[in-house]
Structures are given as structure tokens and as C-alpha cells.
Amino acid sequence: MTVLVTGGAGYIGAHTVRALRSSGRKVVVLDTLERGNREAVIDAELIVGDVADQGLVAKICGDKGVSSVIHFAAYKAVGESMLEPEKYWNNNVASTEKMLDVLTEQRVDKFVFSSSAAVYGTPLSMPVTESDPTKPESVYAETKLAVEKLLGAFSQNTDCRLRSVSLRYFNAAGASKDNRIGEDWSSSQNLVPQVMRALLDKDFKLEIFGNDYPTPDGTGVRDYIHVEDLAVAHVKALDYLESGGETLVCNIGTGSGTSVMQVIDLAEKISRKKVPYRIAARRAGDPISVFADARLAEKKLGWKAARGLPEIIESAYEWHRTHPNGYRRGN
Ligand code: WQD
Predict the structure, then answer these.
(1) What pLDDT is stored for residue 191 in this prediction?
(2) Rounded to an integer, what distance in angstroms lies between the CA atom of residue 96 and that of residue 47?
(3) What is the pLDDT of residue 331?
């Protein structure tokens, strides 16, 4: 009864591996280490390889007694996806389909998928519910929606009904409470790591992408969810499938929106330092406000966010303060 975690050397994957181990499950990680970090894999076996390698995936399933998969392995940079669409379609979708073919042959029938709130594009109303229209605005988001649809097809497969839970993440942030794993700001353009960089790198100034939005303080609003809450959601999704749950797609967010300025204000309070920033132009593709209706995950998975923005900022600050080079040497 081993869980195969693909991309388990990545930010959310590594936190999920630890949550799975805390739940008493055996875990094996498959990661190319192209963007992941060996050091982030704690208390689990790491096999370096690609999910598209069907022989390797079949061997792992057989040798390790894999009974379920949590699939993180994918490229996730929205901007890069617009510049290199083929790379994203190949890695995020074609490779996933190759793996799914092997899993059905190996009779592995429980699958948790790392999807994204980006599949909604710019939602028309808040909070976002799972029945809202999906209108991806990036190739990255299109590939996430494509895999959700692929999983829908595999769940109809009479031969080996692969049941799945697709988790549509809102904005993941923060680091592990014990400060052993976190995010690498050199590979993430997201707000929280960039705010941390502005606090800790004297040569760096944060750019606020627009402060003229129709929001209370004029800056963009998002639903920031602690990465450890996100990790627990994957364990709950696996519990749900192991107890016979049917294929499901659900939002994973806190249900409340926070503005860029609110993140900055809290970061200044916690760090007792000023965040140097300048107001820049709006970023193309940025929705004004996006936050989740998280009730379906609570109803179906028994999952609800347990941490708020203070824990996100405190853990992120402690991680980046003590790991200015991420996992690289010299911290
Ligand atoms: C948050 C807010 C920006 C950086 C993206 C992906 C989404 C998901 C999460 C994978 C916005 C503002 C940001 C900066 C800023 N990734 N901002 N200056 O765009 O909501 O979502 O990451 O699943 O798919 O689209 O996250 O952190 O980039 O932006 O002002 O340097 O912070 O305008 O309002 P986003 P973000």
C-alpha cells in the first residue's frame, strides 16, 4: 500500500510527502529534479526519472506495491507557458496520459491531481464555485483543465475505473512549521516569495502590479492558502478515494480574499521591517479579485483550511530569512 508521489521534490509535493508520512503511509517519490530539490524529499525514497517513462513507472508500481498516485509533476510558470506552449502540452498532458495508461494496466485506481484555480480564468463572480465556467487564460491553465478532462474519461474506463480527485489550488504560500522545507524565490514569481525577497535582499524592490483596481485598497485580491493546509487536503483526498469516493473536482482555498497591500502590511508587522516597493503597471491577465468557495472540499473531504495569513507570512519569513539561497549550499 504505497503512494507514488510524482513531483514530490517540488514545493507542494514535498510538503504533501511529509503529510502522507505523518498519516502512516509508505511513500515513493518520482521526480526528474529538473525543478525539484533532492533535499526537499524527507523520509521517503526518491527515484529520479520521468512520469513519461512507462517502463520505469510500471517497474515502480510492481516493485513498490503502488496502490495510489498523487500527481504534482508538471511545469507551472504561467508566463513561461505562453512562450513555450508545446513544452507545457507535452510535459503536463502527454506525459500524464502515458503514465495513466501504465497505471490502468497496473490496476492502480486511485489518483489525486494537482490542478489550479487558474482554470477559471477571470471569474465573473466571487467566491468561485466548482460549477463556475472554466475559461483558462494561459496555456498552463489549459493543460490543467485538459488533465481534469482526461481523468474524467479514465473514470469511465470499464476495464480499470481510475477514480480521481482534482484539487483546484488557490494561491499556495508559506513554509513548513519546522522550517525544513519551503519555496525558492529564485524560481517563483509569486507575491509572497517576492515580498520576502524585498525584505531580505537589499538590492531588490517589490513591484506592485497596479494599485488602481476596484478593490478596497486598489490592489489585487487573492485567496492565500498555507502550503501545509494544502498538503493535508491531498491526504484527505486519498482517504476519500480509499473509502470508495467517486471522481471529484474541488476548490482548495480558505474562502477569503486578501489584497497585495494587506500581505505587505502583515509582512512589515511580522518582520518589523519596511517592504521596499514601487507601483508598476497592471500585469496582463491578472484578475481583479479571486477567492474560493471552499464548501465542497469541506463537505466531501472533511477538509478546511486551519491556518491563516499570519502563519503563512511567519513561516515564509523564517524560511527565506534562514535559506536565502533556497536549498542551495551556503545557507
Ligand atoms: C498574486 C497577486 C499580482 C507578484 C498564479 C498562477 C496560478 C497559481 C498561483 C499555480 C496578484 C500581485 C504578484 C509581484 C504583485 N499557480 N503581484 N507583484 O497570479 O494570483 O496566481 O500563482 O497554480 O495558476 O496564475 O499569483 O502570486 O503571481 O499574484 O503585485 O511581484 O500579487 O498582481 O494580484 P496569481 P501571484
Answers:
(1) 97
(2) 17
(3) 54
**Residues comprising the chain, all counted:** 331
Where in 130-273 does DSSP place strands (E)?
163-169, 171-173, 206-209, 221-222, 224-226, 248-252, 258-259
* Superfamily of domain 2-172+226-252, CATH level 4: NAD(P)-binding Rossmann-like Domain (3.40.50.720)
**Residues within a 6 A CB radius of ligand 1:** 76, 78, 116, 118, 169, 171, 189-191, 194, 206-209, 220, 222, 260, 283, 286
**Confidence (pTM):** 0.96
Q: How far is CA 154 from the centre of its chain?
A: 22
Domain 173-223+255-290+306-322 CATH superfamily: UDP-galactose 4-epimerase, domain 1 (3.90.25.10)
Q: Can you tell me which residue has the cell 531588490? A: 204
